[in-house]
Structure formats: C-alpha cells, structure tokens
Amino acid sequence: MRKLLLLSVAPAAILFPGLAYAQVSEQKPVAADDAVAVSDIVVTARRREERLQDVPLSVTALSGSMLEQRGVVSAIDLNTVSPNLRVSQGAQKSLLQMTMRGQSLGNLDANLDPSVGYYVDGIYVAKLSGANAAMVDIERVEVLKGPQGTLFGRNTPGGALVVTSADPHLSDFSGRAQAVYGSDDFRSGELVLNLPLVADKIGLRAAGKVMKSDGWGYNPTRDVGQATDDNWFARIKLRFRPVENVDAVLGYERVEIDELSGPQRLVEVSPALTSYFPLVAPATDKITNYLNTPRFLEYGEYPATSKSTVEMITGRVTVEGDVVSVRAITGYRSTDVEFGLDLDHTPYELMDSTAIYNFKQWSGELQAFGTTLDNRLDFTGGLYYFREIGISAGPTNVRPRVTPTAPGGAYQKYDTDSVSVYGQTVFRFAPRLSLTTGLRYSVDDKFVAASPVNALGKPNQSCALGPAVLPDDSVCYAPFKTSHDAILYLASLEYRPTSDIMLYAKIANGTRSGGTNSRATGNNPASFATFAPEKVMEYEAGLKSEFWDRRLRINLAAFYDDYGPIQRSVTFLDTTTGRLNGRVTSDAHATVKGLEFEAAVTPVRGLTLGTFVGLTDAKYSEFIDAGVDRSGEAFPFTPDYTMGLNASYKMPVGPGDLTISADYFRSAKVISNNSAIRAGTLELLTLPAYDLVNARVSYALDNGLQLAVYGTNLFDRHYDSSASDFSLGVARAAAPPRRIFAEVTYRF
User: Fold this and answer.
1) 3-state DSSP assignment of residue 162
2) What is the rounded radius of gyration, in angstroms, for the C-alpha atoms of the chain?
3) Are the C-beta atoms of residues 540 and 559 closer than 8 Å to each other?
4) CATH for 2-197+219-747, among 3.40.30.10, 3.30.460.80, 3.30.1300.10, 2.40.170.20?
5) Nearest Cα to 135, choosing from 190, 183, 93?
C-alpha cells in the first residue's frame, strides 16, 4: 500500500489515456453514396471520439437501435452477437456466467472475482447475481476482448462487457411507451420519459419496465410453471450542465426479480443416490423413472426459485479544460439474493438446498485526460478505489435428506479493498504511425471469515471446525487475510497503409485477484487453502479495414495467450465428513489461441448483411484435479467456434418504413462444468452443438407508432443451456423452445 501511495502523488505516473466509459453512436460515413455505405460506429473507448475502425482493439459495439433490431432485451441475449463471447445462465436465472476468449468464472464462492469485467454506467459490478436484468433504455453495449486491466477497474483478464444507459437530453421532451405479449402468456410494459427541466441546463430521464410470464416449462409435482418471470425495473437520471464545460449526471436504479428457473432433468445418478432413493420414496417408484424425462418437464419437489433485489446509485462529473479535463465517477451497488434449488430433481426430499447472498460495493474513480504536443499526444491517468463487503450462507440443506449428516454449507463474511493508479498514452510519430502504452499498479486486500451453517442458514453453534484452522477454539469462526499487488501494462503499435486500412499489434497482461477458500464444511485445513492470482499474457494482431466506398467492412484479430496460473475448482475427499468437497487451486496452466472475424456489407440501399466467426483453441497444458491428470482437456464454457449471420432490410412502404431482419447463430459443443467431479461424467457434461434462428418484422409509421412481430428459436431446436454434476448425479437445464411475440411501440 505504501508503494501505491507514493505512486499516486507522482504527476508523471497518471498522464495517460484510458479505455473506460465508452460512448457508442451511429454516424454516417463519408462515401460516394452515403445512403448505401455501412453505418459508422463512433466510440470513445480511449477517452476520445473515434470511429470503431480507428481503435486498435477487438471490439464489438452495438447501439440502442441495433440492440432492438437484434432482439436483445436482457444480458443473456448478448450470447449471439459477438465472436468468442458466451453469456449463459444456470439454475439461478438472474446470475450471469460470462466467458470470453476461454476465460470464465466457474466457481461462485462469494470471495471469488469474475474473469470478464461487467460494467454498468462506468461502474464495475463485482458480483453477477441479479445482473441478468432487463436491458431498458440502453444507449450502447461494447464487448472488449482480451485483458483490460490497465484501463478498467478490476479483474478483467478475459475482457469487459460495458453497458451504458441513456443520459437525459437537455433540450427536447421525448419518450417511448411499449407493450409486448407473447408465448407462455408473456407480457411486458415499458415506459421511457425524457424531460428538460431547465432548457440546456437541467434534464431528467426516467425508465421503467414490468415483465411477467407463466414460463415455458412445467413441473407436474408442484403443478407450477417453470422459467416464470415476475420482474420489474426502474431507473431515473438527473443531469446538470450549469456552464458549458461542466456536465454532471446522477442516477438511481432498482431491480426486483422473482422467478423460477427453467426445467432441469436428471441424466445420470450415482449408486449412492440410487441407494438413498428407496428410503424416501414408495416401493412402487424407482429413481430411473426420473432419468431423461421430457426436456420441458421437471419433477423436483422444490422448484428452483430466485429472488433478487438490486439497487444502484451512480454519479459522474466531467469538467472540460483547454488542455486537461477531469472526470469523477462514483457508484454504489447493493444485491440481495435468495436462491433455492432441488438438486436431485425428483418429487422427494433428497437434496433440496437454499443459499442467501448479500453484497454491497462502493467505488470511486478520478481521471485526468487531454491532448498536447500539437495534438500528437493523448493522455489520461487516474486513481481508482473499490470496496466490497458481503455475506453468503449456503448452499444449505433446508429439508430433510438421507445423505450423510454434516453441516450443510458455509457461512462466509468477506471484505475486499482495492486501490490502483493507472494511465495510458497514444503518441503519433507520423500521420500513419502511432504507439499506445499503458501502465497500472494495483493492490487488493481481502478478508474472509468462514463458519459452517445449520439448516436455517445461520452460523452453526455446534462447531465442526477444529483447532487446525481456528485461532480460538471457543469460537466457531475462521478468519483469513490475503494481499496481492500487480503491475499491468499494455503496448500497441498501429500503422495505416491507407486511410481505410489499419494494422495493429498489441501485447497486454491481465490478472484476477487471489484469495482464500472458505467452504467451511469441516475442520480439514485443505478447505481453507489460499490460491494465487490468475495471470494471462496476451499477444494480439489485428486488421481494421473498409472497401468499396465504405460499403464493406472487415475486421480481423488473432490472439495467443500464455495463461497461468489459472484458478480452477478441484475436488478432494474431506476426511472430516467422508464426502467429496471442492476448493479453488491455482495450479493449472494453458495456452489459448484464437481468431475473431467480423464483417458487414451494404450492397444496395436499405440492405445490410453481417457475419462473425470466433475460433478458440483452449486446452490445459498442466492441470491435476484430485490426483487425475486433466492435461489436454478442453476448457469449460468455451466452444471451439461460434458463428453468426445477420441481415436487415429497410424500405419505405406507404406512410412508414418496413424493416425485416433475421439472425442465425451456431455454437460448437461445449463443456458446461468447471470440473468433472466423478470419473466418467465429462461426456454427460458436454453439451452438443446447436444453432438458432431469430427474426423480426416491424413497421414504423411517421407518426411515431411502430408495430412488430418477432420470434426466437424459430425452428424450435431442442438443446440444453447448461449441465452440472452435483456429486451424486448429473442434471441438465433445458433452453427455451420457439417463442413468438407481438410488440406495439409509440415514440414521441
């Protein structure tokens, strides 16, 4: 920490440009016939407005209108819009699982951090429970590939997903009202209002959405729907611009999520679970009756429930100067989650559990940025502080079960502090040649305390922890502290052989902070082993290009990652309980190679065609799991390839415009679990390849009224979204079937 404070007062250490808080907008390019050219995407991903084609990074950017056209209504829908990005959900629908270039978080312990950073209005979101909320009134979404730790706050070795909502406009009264009805009695209502309170000085913007559905699955045991929704979302933003060079935005949002997960079914059971079953079930029933049941049915006695409340407060103040400008970004986020799950997926009380999470985080960032040396040097630097506290209890047994008796879960209390100083420069040697360099120094201090929990989710008074881990054997409480620092850097050389072609080569490193295992289910010290920070060194080369009077755009990036140590969940036999248990280690290593290709073309007026392909070769070079050598095994959550095609045609018809759009997406097979807990289950945890087709037809009248019909999974492909090994069996979760929706929107 002392080194960090010394660095923070050195002015030279903060004179560099950053990459957070990106802006995206659509802009017509200069072309022979600009009505036929591909629309530009303008970003400020490096703290200055640039065309996407001028940014030496692999980036997928979508504006709000693009999100609507592609049918993106929640973060999970981003799974099909970008190469080498996988966004999924498990039994807890509101929990995001993001993978980028092979890097992901496979263990959901409260003291672990994601490998892919998730940012909302410039604020890093540390815990992704409750993050799969409705995407309402979104200005832009950016998918930034590769290590971003130099520029973004914390723990982004795999990349960053940046979501920015619309700010108030200060000069016009406007808004939008929308109603949607569709399959499974899905219905939603959305309202957006923009109010200029004082012309060009003060503006207010409010957005809200209510969403309900009866679900597309069914549970005959409980006679209830599965995959139901009963959610609402609200956001309000206030913007002040007292003088021309000062701009301030204050925001508040709240999300309430109450839902049942989609149906899950058993595909394999262990001999142990088979032997437990007759103790709770009638003699006429057999557990094999619940193996491989119809994919839209779940026979769980206790359907998976998820109740989440998320509150977020954000603030941003920008003061523009002639040479140096200053921006301050601050945020607070609170997440409360109650999550219940029937692990055995039968009508009987075998392995029912629940978990409770409460997370709170605060962050503050101060940035300085500008241009000097006759516009040859862009610079930005900053100081960043992050604090998170939280409590988690579970998973805990909440119903009787016949498995061996022992405390059913872990009670964890944790506290994280992170401080960093960062900067980056772009220096132009010549009009066609530039060099980007960046540096960041950070310190992460973590505290975690663990205790077994009882059936009510409270710290267990009958302590199973022994003197091997307890500082005071009179208290059932094991505290641990870790501290890690890191130096992150980036260097990128950019060259333009012509005005429409850019070549770049980049080297960057990234890290994810280490910590202490805290699954306090016994007094085995192995349950509390520390794990080191995760590290990656990435080499990337890319091409950004436009041809045919900018009607054709082709972007290409190739990367090679030296990845290790890697944090991975492994299994071990806990001799204090006689059961298999899990912990995180940092012993795995790998090399990851890949390619990303994106293209768009507008051959005739109104018609836009696009495609992307992502290739990833991610296999362990070293990984020992419970004494088993898993070297050569493919990464979890990482398909060898993903690809997509999209087409949109807009034409005038009568008093309005008719737009027809369609998307095709295909993913290779993927391992849907971080660790094969028992021998022979890896194949069951591997999900086959699948493809999806979505389409939308809309008619927008000149008076602001728009009618639309759209569908997802139009060919009704039956595939599974995830698979999990719960130590006594393997279950798979079904993905949604074909769904059709009708939409009415009025803009004013």
Assistant:
1) strand
2) 26
3) yes
4) 2.40.170.20
5) 190
Separation CA 163–CA 70 (nearest Å) = 16
Rounded-to-integer distance, Cα 521 and Cα 79, Å: 35
- What is the distance between the alpha carbons of residues 434 and 585, in angstroms, rounded to a whole number? 41
Rounded distance between C-alpha atoms, residue 144 and residue 142, angstroms: 6
Q: Are 671 and 662 in contact (CB under 8 A)?
A: no
Strand-pair category, 739-747 with 705-712? antiparallel
Split at pLDDT 50, 70, 90, the class of 457 is: very low
Q: State both tokens at 652.
A: 């005038």
Question: Between the CA of residue 595 and those of 103, 152, 213, what are the distances in Å?
Answer: 15, 23, 39
Rounded to whole angstroms, the Cα distance separating 410 from 403 reads 17
Q: What are phi and psi of 413, to 5 degrees?
A: -125, 130
- Look-up: residue for tokens 């995830």? 722
- In angstroms, the CA 109 to CA 742 distance is 40
Identify the CA nearest to 60 among candidates 136, 140, 138.
140
Residues 532-545 have pLDDT tens digits of 999 999 999 999 99
Token pair 């021998």: residue: 679
Average pLDDT, the chain: 85
Give which of 444, 431, 445, 561 is closest to 502, Cα–Cα.
Answer: 431
CA–CA dist 208, 189 (Å, integer): 8
Average the pLDDT over 468-479 and give the result: 57
H/E element holding 66? Answer: helix 64-69
Domain boundaries, the chain: 2-197+219-747
| Model confidence, pTM | 0.90
